[in-house]
Amino acid sequence: MKISGIISVTVSLLAASIAQTPDDYVMDDCIKCQSVKCILSKMTVEEKITQKMIPEFRSWSVGSCGATSSVTVMNSEIASFLAKYKFGGAILFAPNTPQTQQTLVLVDDIQQANLQTNKIPLLITIDQEGGAVTRLGQGTMLPGNMAVGATRNPNYAFQTGQVIGEELSALGINTDHSPDADINTNPLNPVINVRSFGSDTSLVAEYATQYYKGLASKNIIATAKHFPGHGDTSADTHVLLPAATRSREYVYTHELVPFQSLIDNGIDMIMTAHIQYPSLDNTTLPSLTGGEIIAPATLSKVILTDILRGEMGFQGVVISDAMGMDAIITNFGRVDASRKAFIAGIDICLMPAIPTCLADPLMAVFDQIIAGVKQDIADGTYTMEELDASVTRILNLKKKYGILAYDGSNQAARIANALSVVGSADHKAIETQMANDAITLINNDPVRGIPLNIDANTKIAILMPQIGNEQQIASVTKTFTDLGITVSTIPFSYLNTQFSATAGQAQIDQATHVILGSQTNVNNPEVDGGSITTNPGTTNGWATTFPISAINYANSKNKPIFTISLRSPYEVANFVNSTTTLAAYGFKGYNSGVMMEPNIPAAIRVILGKVKPVGKLPVDIYSPVDKTTIAYPFGHGLTL
Ligand SMILES: *[C@@H]1O[C@H](CO)[C@@H](O)[C@H](O)[C@H]1NC(C)=O
Ligand SMILES: *[C@@H]1O[C@H](CO)[C@@H](O)[C@H](O)[C@H]1NC(C)=O
């Protein structure tokens, strides 16, 4: 009591006098006072520049630059990297966060490594969106934004933010790169799709805003992304530099609307997209691949400074999407891309380079960016005033969320708390409820469809794509077990088999019923080609051709077939012959003893009649025959 009394008196005396004489104090005093002006005055130019960078280290090779392994615990090399550069933050990925206690300890060790040299605590960030993009190995996955859109219950968007916020906060992670505010109007979108709440502007605006409020209620910095909108593209920025070609008027009345709602409600961070928006800014930049290309939003001063800050009134922190994405480095190079981004108005460059060992040549990128920005200041293409204003925004954000007052004490108590909060039974119950309410019944034969009644003779063929580690068949059978149902099943994994028109037929022949999973974005079998694993937007011969032929074969044998769309629902218009078709909006199954996304179990509960379908499509579904005709409109969803 006595000690804390003395400290608080000291702090308030410092705070009172700080305005007059900041020079009398060292950085420790400035941090204690939480005076942003004072902190800024003690920072070197180099420290200001690295405050504007956030690196990652999901994998590392200790001692030499050999084979890397996942970083789950701090090592002295990463600690020295952090201590050397005094970054503004660090971003975590799934390899960093497999377990609750381990994650908390790693986060503490990251903060401690930084504090060796840098008095300013770090933003610890993550892409914990819920659904398809989740990083915590033991957290609550939730059904994902498009599923939440399908529930038509905005409170679920708030609860998504609240649950994720509570789990991140318990782990010491202070920033979530979420919610996705993109409007998924392009059915061929390979990278956003189920990460979006839907195709309707006002639905996305409302739900993204509720999600942000849920995160904020747990003192987590939310990040609206990907400004000015990544929903109307058919290329993945991890690979290509896509262009959004809509008119200026359209973009202002669609893509920008959710971001404006989030800004008006006080969101503190916005992430930019590596996408060209010629209707907003057609300024060109020289490309390393030759010629001039239109500046992507991340490098556009018109978009980031004139529109986002000027017209839309955003006063928070603008962070780039990952600067290592091919879309950026192929055209502009790593160092120049970050320099140009800062000039355009980016406050923080995310992952300017991804070194994986101390002697990695990519380590030089950080020094080159520092030197480059200093050169830009000398040349007047960037100014000290701009640098100071940007760093001030970052420090103000850290102050607002209590990060300047970071306290790494009481680890044991924080671990105990995290173990009770992360993936708690309460969170799982909310997750189940949301997933149930999302299941959307597209079509259903009233006689042979839902419910699938199980008796002693029932044998169910389960045909699933089994992508990567996601054991979708196990997700179905585990759900039967959890419901206390004993039924004989005949699994067939159709991903890794060569396509043939007769595949899966033996399994259907032996069965009385079929449960079929479909995972693709496309609605037309004729464009099948490419790889379903690496790019669900351009699928292989299995993507729609296999489900369609399985459905028609089951019909020819008079076996009821229940088809579940596992990702974007756009392909369901091909499944008119399915006895029952459901959209579940989530494809991750059951892995290493852990049920991942709750979507497949929810669909099974609906098929068995344990839960009534109440979901409504959050996007328009176009006909596979005539792409301008809507087969199932936004809002479609049968009830029983
Ligand atoms: C670029 O945009 C400006 C202003 O919107 C317009 O006047 C001009 O024609 C555009 N240039 C090109 C090459 O599209
Ligand atoms: C639906 O079944 C009918 C009758 O077997 C068939 O002619 C038609 O091609 C099928 N349609 C689709 C989209 O599979």
TrEMBL record:
Leader sequence residues: 1-19
Keywords: Glycosidase, Hydrolase, Signal
Any Pfam family hit: Glyco_hydro_3
Swiss-Prot/TrEMBL catalytic activity: Hydrolysis of terminal non-reducing N-acetyl-D-hexosamine residues in N-acetyl-beta-D-hexosaminides
Gene3D superfamilies: Glycoside hydrolase family 3 C-terminal domain, Glycoside hydrolase, family 3, N-terminal domain
Record-linked InterPro entries: GH, Glyco_hydro_3_AS, Glyco_hydro_3_C_sf, Glyco_hydro_3_N, Glyco_hydro_3_N_sf, NagZ_Beta-hexosaminidase
Molecular function via GO: beta-N-acetylhexosaminidase activity
Biological-process GO terms, alphabetical: carbohydrate metabolic process; peptidoglycan turnover
Domain Glycoside hydrolase family 3 N-terminal: 44-397
EC number annotated for this UniProt entry: 3.2.1.52
Superkingdom: Eukaryota
Coiled-coil regions, chain positions: none
SUPFAM superfamilies named in the record: (Trans)glycosidases (SSF51445), Beta-D-glucan exohydrolase, C-terminal domain (SSF52279)
Family: Belongs to the glycosyl hydrolase 3 family.
Protein name, UniProt field: beta-N-acetylhexosaminidase
Native species: Furculomyces boomerangus
